[in-house]
Design goal:
This protein is an alpha/beta fold and 432 residues long. It is built from 16 helices and 16 strands. Strands 1, 2, 3, 4, 5, 14, 15 and 16 form an eight-stranded mixed beta sheet that branches. An eight-stranded parallel beta sheet has the order 6-7-8-9-10-11-12-13. Helix 5 crosses helix 6 and helix 13 crosses helix 14. It binds zinc ion. The site of zinc ion has 5 residues, from loops.
Length: 432
């Protein structure tokens, strides 16, 4: 049974006798090539936590004395894996309702265009979000965050992108700000106003796409920056959404206003968005289903984290996935995320994403875990705080009820997480 723990959580914690403690410790750079395969495992491992931070990491026998001196509450992790909490670096957490009707229609053979024409698709999500109150959005998102915590996620990037006008994009960011105050998890806000062309600008109406991009660049980004409502700006670069030049304008405007960059790149077709990410030194380029070999090599040589979201390919029933294996072999800093969203990837379970990375993209289990923790932290520029278990970092941990980390993706489709610790507090699971 899971339960929320009371205030006694502020006492020091001593997680000990872990069968495998995955430290992910290493030099302060994103993991590439063979380093992705090195989880820094300590057998019979322990972590000592105080005041929200990791004090020491090592073998149980080495840390026991210090834990007793600090009167730490001991949690026995015998037969279990202790690892950094997952960093889910790409989500569309705040939405209203669901798209379960679209899902069934698609399974019955309707095309995306037919579903959109019948009132479904992203247009439906935009209508529902505009009609929803901030409170209703908060209630739904909070329930999802609880589920994420129960599955071992401790840091979550959250994008806007269903408001698609100034008031509703700001409303979404205010919901995220409210969630940051009440949620135990760390939320990283991203402005994705350039997610879809709003219905009122389609077909050239009201000045068309250009007028909407003007609105985003001249009103929305300056206001979001002034009020510090987002850390990142993102855009959806596709022929059905925004052209490369529109995206360049949105991203460079964001840069001028102090926002860091991420980009939805090469998902449905090859647009050049990955090259734009490199040119503008984006923190992350995401999806990457349609990279050329030259794009792939250029990304591998760059500092842009290549974030793969195989949950979207799975849910859409695609037979093809991004070339994760080749990206790793070429030297790219690869990350994994859920892309949690109502249309194409309604999963919030990073453990399932690990299984997809292994089974569909030929990651090793260790590579998948590095991509879902330390490299994802780099993509959010949070690597000083999370993504590995090292002294001085935030105490964000997940305890998995398996004695070998490879069993997390191997026994796929179930939740192995029995305990989640965020900033030194047990937020999910029993600590008996
Ligand atoms: Zn997305």
């Amino acid at each position: 049974m899971t339960k929320r723990m009371p205030a006694s959580n502020h006492r020091p914690l001593f997680l000990h006798h872990a069968e495998q403690l995955l430290t992910l410790a290493g030099p302060p750079v994103p993991r590439r090539c063979a380093d992705l395969d090195d989880l820094g495992i300590v057998r019979d491992g322990a972590v000592l936590v105080a005041e929200g931070k990791i004090v020491a990491v090592g073998a149980t026998r080495e840390l026991r004395g210090e834990a007793q001196r600090r009167k730490a509450r001991a949690i026995d992790c015998r037969g279990q894996v202790v690892m950094p909490g997952f960093v889910d670096s790409h989500t569309h957490l705040v939405f209203a309702g669901s798209r379960v009707d679209d899902y069934e229609q698609r399974l019955r053979g309707r095309s995306y265009e037919e579903i959109a024409a019948a009132g479904g698709g992203i247009g439906l999500s935009a209508r529902l979000l505009r009609d929803a109150s901030a409170r209703a959005l908060t209630v739904q998102a909070s329930a999802f965050l609880d589920q994420m915590a129960a599955h071992g996620t401790t840091t979550v990037e959250v994008k806007t992108g269903y408001g698609l006008d100034v008031a509703n994009e700001i409303k979404t960011l205010e919901v995220i700000r409210g969630l940051r105050r009440v949620s135990a998890l760390d939320l990283v806000p991203t402005l994705l106003a350039a997610h879809a062309v709003p219905p009122e600008y389609r077909g050239g109406a009201n000045g068309g796409v250009g007028a909407y991009v003007d609105l985003v660049c001249e009103r929305l980004i300056p206001e979001v920056s002034r009020r510090q409502l987002a850390e990142f700006v993102d855009c959806f670069c596709e022929t059905i959404a925004f052209r490369l030049e529109d995206c360049r304008r949105v991203l460079t405007t964001g840069l001028r206003h102090g926002l860091a960059l991420r980009i939805h790149a090469e998902q449905l077709g090859r647009t050049g968005a990955a090259r734009l990410a490199i040119e503008l030194n984006a923190a992350s380029a995401d999806h990457l289903d349609h990279l050329t070999m030259q794009d792939l090599r250029a990304l591998a040589r760059s500092n842009v984290v290549a974030t793969l979201v195989p949950g979207a390919n799975f849910h859409l029933g695609l037979m093809s996935y991004a070339r994760g294996r080749q990206l790793i072999d070429a030297g790219a800093a690869v990350a994994l995320a859920t892309d949690f969203n109502p249309g194409t990837s309604p999963t919030l379970n990073m453990q399932f994403v690990l299984a997809l990375a292994c089974d569909a993209m030929r990651f090793t289990p260790a590579e998948a875990i590095s991509a879902a923790t330390i490299n994802a932290a780099y993509s959010l520029r949070r690597h000083h705080w999370c993504g590995s278990l090292e002294p001085g970092k935030q105490a964000d941990l997940a305890v998995m009820a398996v004695d070998d980390y490879r069993k997390i993706p191997y026994y796929f489709g179930v939740n192995h997480c029995v305990l989640t610790v965020k900033r030194g507090r047990v937020i999910r699971g029993s600590d008996e």
